[in-house]
Amino acid sequence: MTDITARVAPPPPNAAENLKFYGLWAAVAIFLLVLPKVFGSGGSLTTFSLIGISIIFALSYNILLGQTGMLSFGHAVYYGLGGFLVIHAINIIGANKWAIPLPLVPLIGGLTGLV
């Protein structure tokens, strides 16, 4: 009962492990920068954008269900609300009824999420 065990921190990664880790991330970054140049059509860029959004949405489910164990669909409301606002903003801007810069649309969605 009186024995105290000391935990020893793991040794820091060596240079080869650091190079492997950062090299992998650098390769992924270069791949993502080259990807739009290889696939120049609008359809493929839209598909890649949707894939990226779906990956982020799936990772949020992983955080909620996998790590915390909570079943919550609250973040899906903000995902849907953002899509809803963007579609309506594009329709209003396209009809020239309201002059709003398109980069402000995500800001409006973010402010709505903040409230």
Question: What can you tell me about this protein's structure?
Answer:
The chain is built from four helices and no strands. The chain has 115 residues and is mainly α. The chain has a domain at 73-115. Helix 3 runs antiparallel to helix 4 (104-114). The radius of gyration is 22 Å and the shape is flat. This is Branched-chain amino acid ABC transporter permease. Keywords: Membrane, Transmembrane, Transmembrane helix. The chain crosses the membrane at residues 21-39, 45-64, 76-95.
Name a few traits of the molecule.
72% helix, mainly alpha, flat, 115 residues, single chain
On the 0 to 100 scale, the average pLDDT is: 81
Instruction: Report the helical percentage.
Output: over 70%
Distance between the termini: 52 Å
The helix/strand class is mainly alpha
Give me the Rg, rounded. 22 Å
Largest sheet: none
What general outline do the C-alpha atoms trace?
A: flat
Number of helices: 4
Helix/strand order, N-terminal first: HHHH
Count of beta strands: 0
Kindly estimate the percentage of residues that lie in beta strands according to DSSP: under 5%
Low-confidence stretches: none
Short description:
With 115 residues, this protein is mainly α. 72% of the residues lie in helices and 0% in strands.
Secondary-structure topology with pairs:
Blueprint (H helix, E strand, L loop, with lengths): L14 H24 L3 H27 L5 H21 L9 H11 L1
Helix pairs in contact: 3-4
